Amino acid sequence: MTWAKFDDAFWSHPKVLRAGNEAVGAFVRMVCYCAQHLTDGVLDADTATTIAVHRKVLDKLVSVGLLERDGDGYRVHGYLERNPSRAQVEAEREAKTQRQNRWRESRSRAQVASENPANKGRVDASTTPSRDASRDASGAGTGAAAPSRPGPSRREEESPT
Fold it and tell me: Which positions ≥6 away from 130 have C-beta within 8 Å?
């Protein structure tokens, strides 16, 4: 999943204020479309028109400088300055896939090693049974569990003497 990035001051930028709510709504949808489909900020005319609904909305976005004409389509102004390119997203996805594959392979090798009869009875940090920390810390060995939260503290005048 990709993310479209907007500065928290986007709403108050002069271009945005001049564009108006209808055009800005279409613009946000266009940026999200570009992020989702990895277009590097480029929209074909049909997609831009479908999102904007009215030609006057596209014209407004171009006139305020949020969109630029690009051949028969449009380009989101400054898209690659604020959002990762298709190549960057694909490289990050490939790196993530490789990390996940390495982790899965190491887990698989660990599973095979733990099932190996030669390793039965062998104890290491990953196979040591857990113990009750409250019992071990006190040294009392009473087996009583530690309270889940501390009891209320008393004011000095209330404490028994």
Answer: none
Full-prediction pTM beyond 0.90? no
Measured CA to CA, the distance from residue 39 to residue 105 in angstroms comes to: 34
Q: How far is CA 36 from the centre of its chain?
A: 14
Confidence of residue 52 (pLDDT cuts 50, 70, 90): very high
pLDDT of residue 44: 96
Phi/psi of residue 68, each to 5°? -125, 145
CB atoms within 10 A of CB 89: 17
Q: Mark out the alpha helices in the chain (DSSP H runs).
A: 14-19, 21-37, 45-52, 55-64, 79-82, 86-115, 133-138
Give the mean pLDDT of 111-139: 62
CA separation for the pair 127, 113 (Å, rounded): 12
Q: What is the pLDDT of residue 152?
A: 65
Which residue has tokens 């709504």?
Answer: 25
Q: Which pLDDT score, from 0 to 100, does residue 81 have?
A: 93
d(CA 147, CA 143): 12
